[in-house]
Design goal:
alpha/beta, 8-stranded mixed beta sheet, about 40% helix
Length: about 325
């Protein structure tokens, strides 16, 4: 019988009794927050974690608890990865491929949120370029290391409900920039990437899933001004006043639980090609962003996923 988990389940609860000895797992964004907790939980159950981060000094300090709590042969090594630079992404991927060691799971955890308008080293809008295109190139370049039975977990967000992707103007060259619209586009892209990656690889036993960790207060919100944060809090309060259940922030171990569950606990056929939240597959919704869950249809549209893949290849100048 499969245990039932929910919004308040923690990483240690979903991994209870799970032995990951001999498993090798890549986690991006291990310098803070969810990435560190995900790595800690996985290494604590025996996994060999490869943690990727832009700032290796910061990541080394942040992962002290990962090394301290590793068990059953688990551990962590670090690799440099700046998702906002395709040169860095390609160098990281080349190093991993040259190493030749396979991955059982790849967790595309790193990301940015609600940044001021800016561009990556390659001229892409910051959020789309970092959250989607950087991972798109990294994952596809190391896909040969993912053997049958392995899994890709893309961290998305309920923020996907802010916006569908805009394949005609991905860099806001002709559209007025809005922080959360850009964030929504990038988070929808994370889901669509999982949908198409799953379609392309499932015949070979490699699956992909997108997850929403929940509302957590981490460094991800460092770009949000007090005004933006207050507007979000007011929106949440208004929904509660309309009879919705009161919103509750998750702890970091609760937030990382869905990543761990989707990566190594949930049956592949249950989650493959889908979007999960609170340790279960999300239900379709037509509602706006109400922070209460659900997946918009456009984010799971297989034709939209194929179109995004083609556009992403065009943007990065690489075919996969």
């Amino acid at each position: 019988m499969i245990a039932s988990f929910g919004a308040k389940s923690t990483t240690d609860e979903v991994l209870a009794g799970v032995d990951l000895s001999g498993k090798r797992i890549l986690v991006t964004g291990v310098s803070a927050g969810l990435g560190v907790e995900t790595a800690r939980a996985l290494a604590g159950h025996g996994a060999q974690v490869v943690g990727a981060a832009r700032d290796l000094d910061k990541a080394y300090k942040a992962t002290e608890q990962v090394r301290a709590q590793a068990a059953n042969g688990g551990g962590i090594e670090l690799v440099e990865l700046d998702l906002a630079s395709l040169a860095s992404v390609r160098a990281c991927a080349d190093r991993l491929v040259a190493d030749g060691k396979p991955f059982d799971v790849v967790i595309a955890n790193a990301g940015v949120m609600a940044t001021p308008f800016g561009k990556t080293a390659d001229g892409f809008e910051t959020q789309f370029g970092t959250n989607h295109l950087g991972h798109f190139v990294l994952v596809n370049r190391i896909a040969s290391l993912m053997q049958p039975g392995s899994r890709l977990v893309n961290l998305s967000s309920s923020g996907h409900r802010f916006s569908d992707v805009d394949l005609d103007d991905p860099n806001f060259d002709h559209t007025p920039y809005a922080e959360f619209v850009a964030y929504g586009r990038s988070k929808t892209a994370n889901i669509l990437f999982a949908v198409e990656f799953d379609r392309r690889h499932k015949a070979h036993g490699v699956r992909a899933v997108a997850v929403h960790p929940g509302g957590i207060q981490t460094e991800l919100g460092r770009y949000m001004t007090p005004g933006v944060m207050q507007a979000m809090i007011d929106s949440i309060a208004a929904q509660a006043a309309e009879g919705q259940p009161a919103f509750e922030w998750k702890t970091i171990p609760q937030g990382a639980a869905t990543s761990c569950w989707a990566a190594v606990v949930a049956p592949a056929d249950t989650v493959g090609g889908l979007y999960c939240e609170d340790c279960h597959v999300a239900e379709p919704t037509d509602a706006g962003l109400d922070f209460r869950g659900g997946i918009r249809a456009y984010a799971l549209d297989p034709e939209r996923a194929k179109a995004l893949w083609a556009k992403s290849e065009e943007m990065v100048g690489e075919r996969f």
